[in-house]
């Protein structure tokens, strides 16, 4: 059976234990009722980017839904002009960077499994539930895809991480149920799920020439997920793959955590992080810096109580000019701009030993240096979590590391050298295969949609 499926609002089956081999196997063909006039699709709703694919006669295809690109940034912008326009993807980012008045949100997936999903936020003169904001994004993807393929899409295989929430089965089940409800509210009548690393394995399998036992490492924006799978040309057309999925494991750690670590290590000190107050050796409050370094919490800084409190701190700070930069940034509502530059810096450090992160829009000429060594040191605890999770997943499969023949990397986070090194430390002899970093999961979900729905 699949991780879970949801066919009606009243039906919310629980997700099985992710560590059990059976939990990641697909449903047999014909297990879901057919809808005469609609098509099925695979939807990878990611923390940083999303894709949507359709099965064709030749192969699964990801639709180009955002200015000719198959990846759509998981971002929404609510304009505050008279039309109150709503934008998603690259248009949302462009509106924010261009200074259009409005509210920008990114990393929407990260609120699943948290209390925030049931809260409301202020948009102009109305309060909107966060789950409705996620629905707005998913609905827009669906409408764009339908316009492009010329047919309604009413069945979807949705990707999901192995764990939405670490160590909390109830919250994990609720997160999946919430995402199923959102998908139905967006117009899908049939909603089922597949673990994202298992989906990536099915995409990888199309190029496998001989039977292979592989570890799929899907390092996304919000989670890192792993599956041990048995793949091969003689297996790929089977309806029932439950015996081939040996184990799945994961942790709520991804590219946005690496962004936060780099931000706190390199950028936030230039805005006063860990600077001291006048009296004693007390540091300035750290809360605003953690909010500013986390995609999902940046908007907390725009609460009306934040600026008055920071201005009081500035009066008592030994380096008031640094607090002044932070205050100015918040007054401009440019918190997400910091993370956009940090993300670019992270990507640059994947290939270079050092880079510079520009902040000249905060203060003319302001820029901060960042080095690979600094980044690796700041993310060392994250690398250890990855090693632990990989080791545990292989053990759950009943194998030793030497039995893993290949490591298949996918997800934007797999570009980070220390991430790859953490996985390779457990599997030094396995062959390394790089897939479509931003498309493998979506393509695999599309393969699964064809298997399940025809």
From TrEMBL:
Lineage: Bacteria, Pseudomonadati, Pseudomonadota, Alphaproteobacteria, Hyphomicrobiales
Record-annotated membrane-spanning stretches: none
Extent of Low complexity compositional bias: 1-14, 20-34
Region Disordered: start-end pairs: 1-43
Keyword terms: ATP-binding, Nucleotide-binding
InterPro entries per the UniProt record, alphabetical: ATPase_NBD (IPR043129), Hsp_70_fam (IPR013126), YegD-like (IPR042054)
Pfam families: HSP70 (PF00012)
Domain of life, per lineage: Bacteria
Protein name: Hsp70 family protein
